[in-house]
Amino acid sequence: xxxxxxxxxxxxxxxxxxxxxxxxxxxxxxxxxxxxxxxxxxxxxxxxxxxxxxxxxxxxxxxxxxxxxxxxxxxxxxxxxxxxxxxxxxxxxxxxxxxxxxxxxxxxxxxxxxxxxxxxxxxxxxxxxxxxxxxxxxxxxxxxxxxxxxxxxxxxxxxxxxxxxxxxxxxxxxxxxxxxxxxxxxxxxxxxxxxxxxxxxxxxxxxxxxxxxxxxxxxxxxxxxxxxxxxxxxxxxxxxxxxxxxxxxxxxxxxxxxxxxxxxxxxxxxxxxxxxxxxxxxxxxxxxxxxxxxxxxxxxxxxxxxxxxxxxxxxxxxxxxxxxxxxxxxxxxxxxxxxxxxxxxxxxxxxxxxxxxxxxxxxxxxxxxxxxxxxxxxxxxxxxxxxxxxxxxxxxxxxxxxxxxxxxxxxxxxxxxxxxxxxxxxxxxxxxxxxxxxxxxxxxxxxxxxxxxxxxxxxxxxxxxxxxxxxxxxxxxxxxxxxxxxxxxxxxxxxxxxxxxxxxxxxxxxxxxxxxxxxxxxxxxxxxxxxxxxxxxxxxxxxxxxxxxxxxxxxxxxxxxxxxxxxxxxxxxxxxxxxxxxxxxxxxxxxxxxxxxxxxxxxxxxxxxxxxxxxxxxxxxxxxxxxxxxxxxxxxxxxxxxxxxxxxxxxx
Amino acid sequence: xxxxxxxxxxxxxxxxxxxxxxxxxxxxxxxxxxxxxxxxxxxxxxxxxxxxxxxxxxxxxxxxxxxxxxxxxxxxxxxxxxxxxxxxxxxxxxxxxxxxxxxxxxxxxxxxxxxxxxxxxxxxxxxxxxxxxxxxxxxxxxxxxxxxxxxxxxxxxxxxxxxxxxxxxxxxxxxxxxxxxxxxxxxxxxxxxxxxxxxxxxxxxxxxxxxxxxxxxxxxxxxxxxxxxxxxxxxxxxxxxxxxxxxxxxxxxxxxxxxxxxxxxxxxxxxxxxxxxxxxxxxxxxxxxxxxxxxxxxxxxxxxxxxxxxxxxxxxxxxxxxxxxxxxxxxxxxxxxxxxxxxxxxxxxxxxxxxxxxxxxxxxxxxxxxxxxxxxxxxxxxxxxxxxxxxxxxxxxxxxxxxxxxxxxxxxxxxxxxxxxxxxxxxxxxxxxxxxxxxxxxxxxxxxxxxxxxxxxxxxxxxxxxxxxxxxxxxxxxxxxxxxxxxxxxxxxxxxxxxxxxxxxxxxxxxxxxxxxxxxxxxxxxxxxxxxxxxxxxxxxxxxxxxxxxxxxxxxxxxxxxxxxxxxxxxxxxxxxxxxxxxxxxxxxxxxxxxxxxxxxxxxxxxxxxxxxxxxxxxxxxxxxxxxxxxxxxxxxxxxxxxxxxxxxxxx
Lengths: 652, 652
Prior knowledge:
The structure is a homodimer. By secondary structure, chain A is α+β, with helices and mostly antiparallel strands. Chain A contains 25 helices and 11 strands.
């Protein structure tokens, strides 16, 4: 299947199983005028129209339509992995288009296909794949963004008319930040279901917003939120419902339905569990954010690495100035991000495959605690790592990096919101820890849990503490050492958090929210430690699985760099816990500097093997000329050692 | 003099000596329609026109004209401090206008007043204060941004016509990123002076660019660089000179002049020293960047702190949700930035006073090594700190922080370039260390220097190392402990850097650039350690000098927080050097969490005492309504304990 891709072995390895459809999409985008470098003079409306046209272009591609129709089928094999591959390619072309597709297919489509009955999927999502209408996803409210459980929008069932009445009871209940709100036709609206005066908790309803001519459905108001930091192509708006009537069939019925005479039925009795099940069904969309952040990161790295290899500044007296990549600070700032981008590539693939596995076998995503933890944590880690990476790319390209032509500013602004939307990162980290801690018990606050915590805190801990302490100093550069270090940190943080919570809640009878809040810094540290560990493990496994020896050697260096960088960042913690001695800690720093230096030339090959077509890179400082900014052009550097392999896409 | 300001004692203290002219400017801006919340739909040209109008409005104010005329006078008392106060106020209203004023008055005006003769000041700068024309500052070239010594533009003297011929010999010599290039009338152009075939190094020339009607001067081309990440109101462009002829009198002659018959004369013989003297004369402008970054930071903090005190999310079961400022992660992210903003306020004031002192007494700024180091380091530290602060403000305000109405996005984008322009921050940090090391000797690479380094590395070091080790653990929260810690770090880093350089260059005969480059991470660490120490010391002195006991108590807490935060950030280093034990390091973390918690309510008073008028704050989430985004409005919180003092400006 990968035979058709005529490019380097590493590039194929990084692209993964779905390189054919990804290549196809790259080709289509490269040939499409809509994706040509666009003007920065467009008005907001023009930018939104362009984004809508771009999305329409992608959705009408026969391969895409075939793929999207699979979404309606049950237990479709590898659907998520394939979708994420597509999402990454689309985001390298334009993040706003990628996000808009995420709203229409991932969120609106995902809500219907995951929460709806087979008939509902046919009726409400199949037309989207046939370009008949688009949808939006209305969960967030003014009063409840991160704390979505407390949403206030009401859906009262009226047996006489067999209708639900969707209503916004107050200012705080207004649906906010809704993507595609100014253009879409239908919304999946989350509202508290009220049947016969009794609340059944949040459910999801299909609410018509406007028809094909743009005429609003009675009682629906959409307010344009207009200008944002980035993602100008995505039309975010506010939805207000004034007793909007929809048919009984518009309640997505997988987790709850109402009979014509007003009897509520659900396969899950507990309201909290029911809502969790609904949210869990939306997990794949969360992973898409990681992929979108990765796309932005890779673009930033291509641009910064290429420019660093062609721009010269400073140097030995009376000699030619050196390439700026030679400056120690330059490679020290860029190389760890490149290693992280590789780690994320493999970890995301792993998470997607786990999810596809679960879906294919009809397993409940809610019960895959470790998968939930991984995806929430990946969302936070990847989106923050992306921002840090793009900021370094921007600074490492100096004034040129501040110019719009060179793409980095827009990448930063477009992807900035990723750290707070679809679950604020700080909240995501709390999800990670909650999931980690409830792997063993069903109710976090049950005494069973605390019984367990109690045992946990007193047993096995000291053997854990000392088991890795006997390393000799020459092992610091060893991957095994690094893997053990990140794993040790996660376990100690977990154990000590459990002990602290146990003391506060069980012994001192503190109220739970206050106890948890007073440990929040600890909680977020643990969550990140967990994700760090998983990314390093997945990177190491991918190195092991790599079949081409030269590629394996290259990836090994970056894997070591990723591990070293993770340990270096947290060396204070390791020193505090006597896991590193002062001298091993200094060795870690030396090792970081040396590894960064050793991969700085390889970096050119790696960014080239990200296989992003020129039309998507666009930046003149990365060697892609732009007639509007000839002054910005720098010839793309060739890799000094490697003869260039045939790259079919390089001239697109 | 400060009697006229009817506001809180802390607000007066933070505003400093020039609160009257600052208040006057605040009042004028508040009443001026040009500064009213502007549309985000403006085209680039419209935005630039608006910025030009805003600048014109400010320059025509009688107080401003009086102040600017002082710039032409020699040894004007406190001119720099007063100018910086004005710059800060203007930047809180609009950063682009502040930057544009920096270009016209600080850079163009500064070049003329610092490098020109009295007649040249009269001729080329006085008209600017009379609104007859504006200017630009043309130093940076395509090939030489940070490494400005290597600029390529030529100025050949032609005795026959008594003219200089200004010429751009190649692509890399084009003047780039020049602010006001599309609107300004004259440029101060830095070019290599060639007299009778001999190069005399870079000098500064007045070159006419376009007349009042916009007609270009013969041989001059200006290319619009158009769209950037931010600062849309500043028209950056490229200048190309094709044998442009200017009169002999247009060479700014303080550090070098050419007689009619082509004899070069300069008070400074050494070319390198001469150029350094020219650059040193421009130091005040560099400090302006710190002030501009501070303005952005303070605005971000006002918005994020107020919103955090009114927005509620999550909370104990069955109770009202808590204000988000109560979340541990929220106050942990925001409070250290607030402490840093205060530290920067006092440190900048100190640096400005030092500079005013030097100027007033006619001292050579070049020879104030510690001042040069301070200003270069402050530029780097403050602009990075600003970006980190604004990013946290953006994330701590969630989706609201991503909306343009709430100001943070534009603050981020406008101030992002500060970290690379007017001296890339990484280069600035190298300037710091060069200045620190040459405080003792005139030539860095001279053997005298290395003789000194040799002594330095072997003597006194161990007593230094141990002298602070005997602290008992209860002193960690003591300001004296924190001051000693940051000072110890600076000295050890300096000593070890000297030792490393000495070994590489003198013992192992490494080439200097390579040796320096291999220590670059060490160099940048030392530079930041230096600035950290100075900011903490200046903060501590300002606390001491504060006359009002309640204010002093408040500032003491923030000063402790700043010191704790600085030590916490670098605790790995302290652990590596056994300056902290694992348990004291953990105490530092606990102390950081507790201090952040203890000041979170005081934060409301502090941001209010920044005394920024509502019309400049603008953000609906900070309690300033905007009719275009009613949905974003959150009532500004009142400080829970403090009764509000009369604030004359709060209703502006």
